[in-house]
Amino acid sequence: MKMDIAAVWHEAGERVKDKYMIPTLWRALENSVAITLEDGQFVVGLGPGSTHLAGHLNAPEYRNAIEAAIAGACGQRVRLVVIDGVGMDEWVNFKARRDAIAEQREKARQKTVRERATTQTWDGVMEAVGRSFAKLQLRQLPQVRAKYIETAVAMISDAMDEIYDEKSPDEASHRALARVIDRVGTLAEVPSTIVALEITRFRKRDSD
What we know:
Elements: H1 5-19, H2 23-31, E1 32-38, E2 41-46, H3 54-58, H4 60-74, E3 79-84, H5 88-134, H6 142-163, H7 171-188, H8 192-207
Helix pairs in contact: 1-2, 1-4, 5-6, 5-7, 6-7, 6-8, 7-8
């Protein structure tokens, strides 16, 4: 037997009214229309001129009571969803927008996770080139610093083989690599562009 969601919503509304003597909440309940019960979501809508009342239905201090009243009326736990509009078309459009927003948020989350992982990985390389310089004896001499650059270039190149997509690097990888290159340049007291050029030459020789 198909559930009469309009009757469920009316009964739930009456239960909430018995609990709260709040005129604006009553108007919100009376002006909203039950649309569907889907995947544990009890969907109600507000038509033009009434959408400003949605805040009363969504307010935390009332929402739990409303959901409990619906559960008492229909015999199952539900989550209240309030939309603009009173028909299935509006619900379909609402779900499409909600799914699109959720997808965008997930993509942004995944990007943040990748960028954080990239940064943490390159931070390890930066620490390694720093330790390598700290171990040098007579590092104030230019020939010692030149040898350090060779060592650092090889270390960076090895890291690029492991964690850098040279064909299509993302911005986070670009910037992380640049920070390591800048660090080597600062330690060796040479322009970072020179270090980058040495990396390019090293990798070209390595690939020939």
